[in-house]
Design a protein that fits this description.
Helix 1 crosses helix 6 and helix 5 crosses helix 6. 28% of the residues are buried. This protein has six helices and 16 strands. By secondary structure, the protein is of the alpha+beta class. The N terminus and C terminus are likely disordered.
């Protein structure tokens, strides 16, 4: 994975705030559409079972008679989006009110209501409403527009709606919501960048699958008893994306263990580089002979040899994870100042007017 630098490295708070506020005054361009090849590759996860998404409205308008600002759409029994202040928002549906700026993957920004839309997804015995859009302020500028924010509301049980705050990478928006074969609920594909070619170009993602259950999003377990995961990779910006099943998501695991928000700077040295193959030594009687009783038994017993190989592989993985955690701890200290400046600058951006 290429080492990349934070977008605002080592800027003091006032300088970062001034820079971001200056950028915020520029009219943001419409968020670019997602890469068609990436969308096609991601669709392979749903295996043709992705439900249809029905647009209900793309016009959230402010009610001028109430304060704090309340945004609604001209659709019966639809949720309202309320901007409590410059940092906090709520979603009101029926008699329920949900916090809209917290998620399992870090704090969410306010939505840009000029860009937001209301969608509907229907499954047998299930109905979901989705408020989808890009963020306001910093998240409406440049590469930050790659993040989409999805407030999914399960309205299947009257009077007991469930709210799921989800996010999308790479401009995918609602494409990260689908249904796995044999699933009775919506599923969410969380993309975690795993390989950066430049500060803004990602050539690899780890994809973690979740089910939207009443108690919250939960990892989907595959037929092998492990969490269902994939990788999305490409060789360069002009190459097609390839979807591959994977047994592990080391980048996402290290990020989650370090409590890193989804929008934190890319993690440097998350995994040690692959070893460079060296010259193969000539095999002699001394080097070919087993060096201990365990090795001798392994050589004599194929089953023991396989067991030893699995143990060596597991030991190598444990060491790899330990080394990665050590590197992350070192990088966290270096990134703390720039992250603090960035977060403080976000708070300084005015909320939706």
């Amino acid at each position: 994975m290429s080492s990349t630098q934070p977008r605002f490295p080592h800027l003091p708070f006032r300088a970062a705030a001034a820079l971001i506020l200056g950028l915020s005054s520029i009219v943001a361009l419409a968020a670019p559409p997602p890469d068609p090849s990436l969308v096609q590759a991601l669709d392979g996860i749903w295996q043709g079972a992705r439900p249809s998404v029905t647009p209900l409205s793309d016009a959230f308008t402010r009610d001028p008679s109430v304060d704090p600002p309340r945004y609604t759409v001209p659709v019966k029994d639809s949720p309202a989006y309320i901007t409590v202040d410059a940092e906090h928002a709520e979603i009101e549906y029926g008699r329920k009110v949900f916090v809209a700026n917290e998620s399992p993957w870090g704090p969410f920004p306010l939505l840009n209501t000029d860009d937001a839309e209301l969608l509907e997804i229907a499954l047998p015995k299930k109905r979901y409403l989705v408020i989808s859009g890009i963020g306001a302020g910093l998240y409406g500028i440049g590469d930050w527009q790659r993040f989409g924010f999805l407030h999914v509301i399960d309205t299947s049980v009257r009077g007991a709606p469930v709210h799921y705050p989800l996010f999308a990478e790479a401009g995918l928006r609602d494409k990260v919501i689908g249904k796995l074969p044999n699933s009775t609920v919506l599923n969410f594909a969380r993309l975690v960048p795993s390989r950066w070619a430049t500060n803004t170009q990602v050539n690899g993602y780890e994809v973690l699958l979740y089910s939207l259950l009443p108690r919250g999003p939960e990892r989907v377990i595959g037929d092998d008893g492990r969490p269902l995961s994939y990788t999305l990779t490409r060789d360069d910006a002009n190459a097609p994306w390839t979807l591959t099943r994977t047994p592990a998501t080391p980048i996402a695991n290290v990020r989650d263990d370090a409590n890193r928000a989804f929008s934190a700077p890319p993690m440097k040295n998350a995994l040690p580089p692959p070893a460079t193959p060296g010259p193969i030594p000539a095999v002699t009687a001394a080097t070919a002979a087993p060096t201990d009783a365990a090795a001798q038994n392994a050589a004599a017993d194929p089953a023991a040899a396989k067991k030893k190989a699995r143990k060596d592989k597991n030991d190598a993985r444990k060491k790899e994870a330990k080394d990665a955690a050590s590197e992350i701890a070192k990088d966290a200290a270096k990134d703390a100042a720039s992250e603090a400046a960035s977060e403080a600058a976000k708070k300084a951006i005015p909320g939706i007017r």
